[in-house]
Design a protein that fits this description.
By secondary structure, this protein is an alpha/beta fold. The protein contains 4 helices and 5 strands; from the N terminus they run E-H-E-H-E-H-E-H-E. It has one domain (4-119): 3-Layer(aba) Sandwich (Hypothetical Protein Ychn, Chain: A). A 5-stranded parallel sheet has the order 4-3-2-1-5. The longest helix is centred in the first third of the chain and has 16 residues, at 16-31. It is globular and about 40 Å long.
Length: 120
């Protein structure tokens, strides 16, 4: 049985509700013994940068920066869309724990055996 799970996120801190819930779900999946990937694309690639999520806290949830850090520290993988990242001129030397800039083929490879996913 495939134990992979993907959370796809297209929003950054300008939509703190979606960004926060995406990482809440990702942490829950990881805590349920799923090999979990958060795929950041379009504007969400900003969240791959250290410090970008600082100060974002939705009522009723842990702060976004804490959720991202916990995910990376627990072994979660953050795939960052390479073209989206490059288009925005971000710094590969400033990635949060667990983040790696990848092409779409890497995500397809992870999902190829079939896996559930959610999108925010």
């Amino acid at each position: 049985m495939n134990k992979n799970f993907v959370v796809s996120l297209t929003r950054d801190k300008s939509d703190p509700d979606r960004a926060t819930v995406a990482f809440v779900v990702a942490n829950a999946a990881l805590g349920s013994d799923q090999e979990t990937v958060v795929f950041l694309s379009t504007d969400a690639v900003h969240l791959s940068q250290k410090g970008d999520a600082d100060g974002v806290a939705e009522e009723g949830f842990a702060p976004l920066a804490e959720l991202i850090a916990n995910f990376g520290e627990a072994g979660g993988k953050i795939y960052v869309c390479a073209p989206c990242f490059k288009k925005r001129g971000l710094d590969e030397n400033n990635l949060v724990a667990g983040a790696v800039v990848v092409g779409g083929a890497k995500l397809v490879e992870f999902m190829a055996g079939g896996c559930p996913s959610v999108s925010y």
